[in-house]
Amino acid sequence: MNTAQNPRRILVAIKRVVDYNVRIRVKPDGSGVMLDGVKLSINPFDQIAVEEALRIKEKGLADEVVIATIAPADAQSMLRNALAMGAQRALHVVADTALEPLAAARVLLKLVEKENPFLVILGKQAIDDDNNQTGQMLAALWNRPQATFASRVELTATTARVTREVDAGLETLDVDLPAVVTTDLRLNEPRFVKLPEIMKAKTKPLEIIPLASLGGGSDLRVKVTMTEPPPARQRGIMVKDAGELFAELHKRGLV
Fold first, then answer.
1. CB atoms within 10 A of CB 1
2. CA 89 to CA 72: how far, in whole Å?
3. Which of 97, 104, 129, 171 has the most C-beta neighbours closer than 10 Å?
4. What is the CATH number of the domain that holds 58?
């Protein structure tokens, strides 16, 4: 399957977010979320995407796994973590500010054209903005099939069979390759990275690509005017029976 001229390559796009174990704090002026001194990690859905790409390669169905991110210059440790999991190379598109989904998809399309992957895998959404748009937009710009919310992926030489989670249960799609797949939580459990792999990752290729060289820009269409924490949970009360419960809910305008 492997040829020097045309290796079967998987491109995995990842995003750096506030670690899911960290309690989010809003800046006093409401201009955003506090990031100083906060642990930043690979978006959990994207980590699942990395794991799935590695499993596909380990089955002999791919020759190379390449990681890509669009992030500030200090995000290389996140890429090294993905390399420590087992990926062969990383691409770091340096951007000082976060890109909206369409702008990110356009940048990823440039990387797709550069790397010529037969499969692109992303997490279904990032836990910071929950947009759930970049994978779909990339597929549209690339003019290739997409299969979102994957809970199982099976590949042949020319197709991907993807079991996806929908409101009514499970749906199975057969799509031609190349294609875009976005991952759901139940697809796999990412591997634990050991110290020797972390040390090896320091020597793996990591290419730095200025955002401007890809023609990318902020291209802002949405402006955040205020960020607020959710209201504090109110203290509960005890009621004697269903009638009293209904009366209390009615008084609060909930029924």
1. 9
2. 18
3. 104
4. 3.40.50.620
